[in-house]
Batch of 2 targets.
Target 1
Amino acid sequence: MSSKKRERPTQSVERTETANRAVSARSPLSAFAAEPIMMTQPDASIERQLRALEESHLRSDVRSSPESMQALLADEFIEFGSSGRIFDRAAVIAAVAGQPGFESRIDDFVVRALSPEVALTMYRLSAWPTLGGQVRVTLRSSVWMHRAGRWSMVFHQGTLANEGAAA
């Protein structure tokens, strides 16, 4: 092992610092829409499909159906929850089946194709109890894989948004 420090290229550091400054002035997800690095733009039909799938897993009729959730989540699915806990497919299916319904709104939805069969979705989710109550805002990201003619979610993460974060 060498004790010599690895130096980062100046251009990369400057680009990162510029991106960080730009992100603070607008929605955190808009940085992903501006200039993808080593990723390709998906076509509009894939964007529509993935948004519909993201919206579907928020609906109570889908969440309360183990069969619907199994169809949506890949066998190897993992979630990093906004609670800080890690869930596998079986744990998510069991947990969401008993949850009360909620209303939600997706903003700043972005899709990035990571390969022809893999896509990353990112968005801001505002959710509140069906009978009224406080809005909870989370930043969400999911990795989707296209296999056997359909998209399956293999990874999902929800992170509580900062109170003063740009909308």
Note: The CA atoms of residues 113 and 119 lie 4 Å apart.
Target 2
Amino acid sequence: MTGPVNRPPAGASDAEAERPAGPWGDYIAAAQRLDAVRRAATTSASEQAATVQAARQELAAVRARLAPQRARLRQDLGVPESDLVPLEPDLMAATQAVAGGPAAALAALRQARTTADAADAATLGPRTRAEWRPWARNLLVYGPFAGAVLIVQIVLYLVAPSGSIPTYALLCGLSLPVLAFGLGWVTIGFVYGGPGKVDRTPLVGVVACLTPVLLTCMGVGVLALFRG
């Protein structure tokens, strides 16, 4: 014979309604509560493990995003290394942000990646010429003057008498590159000048202004070779 069955209060579940009375019923109730706790703990542990894994992936993504930004700040913009080291208030704020466990750390890392995305959008957008590297910026000035030298040399070669070509070549080869370099030097100071010292990259200017002379000499030599 089975023991008497408890009469549960109104609204109780079917399992509670069928639970036997006495010690055996108390044992079943305790086992059911333990099983519920186990299930809840397993679910919580699984969710926490998934959160930890997501936080690790987010951390790797943030590190990959910050590395090129750090290099760009140092190399392109000349930011000192000491300015890129977090200060004590920054470390305290980061510690407080991740103090709530894996979920809080994941949220903080996602916010950090959003900030890094915004920084990339701001720094990788279209640059003004003042933000370009000095050699590229200055080449936009030296280049047109060097092009003008090349055009003048070609015109003089075409209109000069055949016997005076060496004289014209000597005069143009000495004077026009110097003139182009001087005009480029003055123009860079006028366009990009400011309170600080302007980097005119003289080596880039010399190479750019001498290139037309080399091209002209090569062209004259090739023509002389074919005519001979």
Note: The mean pLDDT is 74.
